[in-house]
């Protein structure tokens, strides 16, 4: 992504210096390109394609075209464009493969979404789009990330699609796909096996069941999702509340740790917004969207009511999780088994399901679940607050190792969800250890690509630079390209470094108020205590991971890099990035 955008900007600036009029199209993991219009292509005197992966070029048939790589384009962009103008030749597309004439082109639409909406969402979208171009499929991808939905699927695209692919780790609204064949998988599968995922989608997709809102949770949906996915949906919607609340509390500490106790002061107002309001909404939002994931809209109100009760009863995030599942499964059961005359059926999702499910969830929370869970949470909080250095180190080792086992997968998300939930109980140390460890794998890969450059191909060295940036942002997925190629060495090295960082963070007593942001949260005063020790913990783990992988990585890759970079021969790069 970084290389694509960098090439585009530098070449555009060079073209302007030459007095050229330019139109630029960038392909990046966010699926938010700037596609060239047909009139732009028709009016062009020269087409320059800078890429390292496959890219369909049929639309440029007959135009003067030159293809090259980012390495050539970035050396001297202005001279590169002048040479391109001199060397470009009319482009003639290759004849279509025989398989393409055997039937109509498969058409798919896809939605990608991950719990945090930062990395997997967009990386999976890019991988699917590249795979579709290689397979000759027509694919449009909608990304539902932390910035909202992008590249929205319109009704015409959905209607024309043979299959809807939902590569999501959280629940998304499927009512607009009623009557279409749907295939579900996680973003990790779509990212690592994009071509197989597209083929399976065409072969194994099943018709979307149900037309009414109350029937949105069909048996097929229940089998394909499950408690883990429902929990991640709740965590996904809760995260913005946690970020806002934690940073507002940290800002109140700028005026002094006890300044918020002074009535009428700005510190008191910030604490009221962050601690008394945002943090109180965390558990209701968590419970509400767990229930929403299970039973769709009818489960939202009962889930939030149960979550608010959990907070009032002192049951915290554990009670909120229980309330969300109680409300969700109760609402889904009522929607499936409560039979009414056709004239009254419309009252079910609006009146009867929220009423009966709220009553059931509330009574169970008050008389059955609330007190035991509150005691359990109080005991856990007391243990975390009073544990000695040995227990703290062991917990840090566990959380740090879990964050690096699968780089954004189920184990990583379990450790992350546990730490985020503890923020509502004012337990901030596990969050610090978790985020620090999550930065280690990509930072370690960046360090390894510097320490042992001769072992890495050119594309891997470029990926190492990008991984370093992603690591600073707490995007563990930046190490996925390395783990996918060499999991038996990358994963152990990452786990070792992550465990060390988590243990050091807990040993130093670091506490973090925000659940995301990487090193950039250090710009917020008091967002983390012991900032220098926190940086030391991250640096130690990253150096361990980078050093281990630099030693463990096999040197044969250097020979492959040399072969691919010989002058006069086209370089086959492992990376699929293109601009």
Number of helices: 22
Q: What is the C-alpha radius of gyration, as a whole number of Å?
A: 26 Å
The share of residues in extended strands comes to 5-15%
Name the overall outline: globular
Helix content class: 55-70%
- Report the end-to-end length measured between terminal Cα atoms: 9 Å
Mean pLDDT: 81
Number of domain modules: 4
Helix/sheet category: alpha/beta
Query: Largest beta sheet, briefly?
Result: 6 strands, mixed
Strand order of the largest sheet: 6-5-4-7-8-9
Protein name: protein-N(pi)-phosphohistidine--D-fructose phosphotransferase
Membrane topology: Multi-pass membrane protein
Subcellular location: Cell inner membrane
Domain PTS EIIC type-2: 227-562
Task: Please describe what this structure looks like.
It comes from Azotobacter vinelandii (strain DJ / ATCC BAA-1303). Its main location: membrane. Keywords: Cell membrane, Kinase, Membrane, Phosphoprotein, Phosphotransferase system, Sugar transport, Transferase, Transmembrane, Transmembrane helix, Transport. It holds the Pfam family PTS_IIB. It is found in: Cell inner membrane. The chain is an alpha/beta fold. It folds into four domains: 1-89, 3-Layer(aba) Sandwich (Rossmann fold); 105-206, Rossmann fold (3-Layer(aba) Sandwich); 226-384, no CATH class; 387-550, no CATH class. The chain is 59% helix and 7% strand. It is built from 22 helices and nine strands. The protein has helices at residues 2-17, 38-43, 70-75, 77-87, 120-135, 155-160, 187-192, 194-204, 219-224, 227-252, 266-295, 300-312, 316-337, 347-386, 389-405, 410-423, 429-451, 458-472, 480-485, 487-508, 531-552, 556-564; strands spanning 47-50, 64-68, 89-90, 107-113, 138-145, 148-150, 163-168, 181-185, 206-207. The strands form two sheets. A six-stranded mixed beta sheet has the order 6-5-4-7-8-9. The protein has a three-stranded mixed beta sheet with strand order 1-2-3. Strand 5 and strand 6 (148-150) form a beta hairpin. Helix 11 (266-295) packs parallel to helix 13 (316-337), helix 12 (300-312) packs parallel to helix 14 and helix 15 packs antiparallel against helix 20 (487-508). The longest helix is centred in the middle third of the chain and has 40 residues, at 347-386. 49% of the residues are buried. Residues 29-33, 96-102, 210-224 and 556-579 have low confidence and may be disordered.
């Amino acid at each position: 992504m970084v290389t694509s955008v960098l090439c585009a900007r530098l070449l555009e600036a060079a073209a302007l210096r030459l007095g050229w009029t330019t139109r630029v199209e960038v392909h990046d993991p966010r699926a938010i390109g700037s596609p060239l219009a047909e009139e732009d292509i028709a009016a062009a005197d020269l087409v320059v394609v800078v890429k390292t992966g496959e890219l369909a070029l049929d639309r440029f048939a007959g135009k003067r075209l030159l293809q090259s790589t980012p390495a050539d384009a970035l050396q001297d962009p202005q001279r590169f464009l002048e040479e391109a103008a001199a060397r470009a030749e009319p482009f003639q597309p290759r004849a279509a493969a025989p398989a393409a004439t055997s039937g109509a082109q498969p058409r798919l639409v896809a939605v990608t979404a991950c719990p945090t909406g930062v990395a997997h969402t967009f990386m999976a979208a890019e991988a699917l789009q590249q795979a579709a171009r290689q397979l000759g499929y027509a694919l449009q991808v909608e990304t539902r990330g932390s910035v909202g939905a992008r590249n929205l699927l319109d009704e015409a695209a959905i209607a024309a699609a043979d299959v809807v692919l939902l590569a999501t780790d959280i629940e998304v609204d499927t009512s607009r796909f009623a009557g279409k064949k749907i295939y579900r998988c996680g973003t990790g599968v779509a990212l690592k096996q994009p071509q197989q995922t597209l083929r399976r989608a065409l072969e194994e997709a099943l018709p979307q069941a149900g037309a009414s809102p109350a029937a949105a949770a069909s048996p097929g949906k229940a089998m394909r999702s499950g408690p883990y996915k429902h929990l991640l949906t709740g965590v996904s919607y809760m995260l913005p509340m946690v970020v806002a609340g934690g940073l507002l509390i940290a800002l109140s500490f700028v005026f002094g740790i006890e300044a918020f106790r002074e009535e009428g002061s700005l510190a008191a107002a910030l604490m009221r917004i962050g601690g008394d309001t945002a943090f109180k909404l965390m558990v209701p939002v968590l419970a509400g969207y767990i229930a929403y994931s299970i039973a769709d809209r009818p489960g939202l109100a009962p889930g939030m009511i149960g979550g608010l009760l959990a907070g009032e009863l002192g049951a915290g995030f554990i009670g909120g999780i229980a309330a969300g599942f109680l409300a969700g499964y109760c609402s889904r059961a009522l929607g499936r088994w409560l039979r009414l005359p056709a004239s009254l059926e419309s009252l079910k999702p609006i009146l009867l399901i929220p009423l009966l499910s709220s009553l059931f969830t509330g009574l169970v929370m008050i008389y059955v679940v609330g007190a035991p869970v509150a005691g359990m949470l109080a005991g856990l909080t007391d243990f975390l607050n009073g544990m000695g250095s040995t227990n703290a180190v062991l917990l840090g080792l566990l959380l740090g190792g879990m964050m690096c086992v699968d780089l954004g997968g189920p184990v990583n998300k379990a450790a992350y969800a546990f730490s985020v939930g503890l923020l509502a109980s004012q337990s901030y140390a596990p969050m610090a250890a978790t985020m620090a460890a999550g930065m280690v794998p990509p930072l370690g890969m960046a360090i390894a690509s510097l320490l042992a450059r001769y072992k890495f191909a050119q594309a891997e060295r470029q990926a190492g630079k990008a991984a370093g940036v992603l690591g600073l942002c707490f995007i563990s997925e930046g190490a996925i390209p390395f783990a996918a190629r060499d999991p038996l060495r990358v994963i152990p090295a990452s786990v070792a470094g992550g465990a060390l960082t988590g243990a050091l963070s807990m040993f130093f007593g670091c506490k973090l108020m925000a659940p995301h942001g990487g090193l950039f949260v250090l710009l917020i005063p008091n967002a983390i205590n012991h900032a220098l020790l926190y940086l030391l913990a991250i640096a130690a783990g990253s150096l361990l991971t980078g050093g281990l992988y630099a030693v463990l990585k096999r040197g044969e890759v250097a020979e492959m890099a040399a072969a691919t970079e010989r002058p006069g021969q086209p370089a086959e790069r492992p990376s699929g990035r293109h601009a």
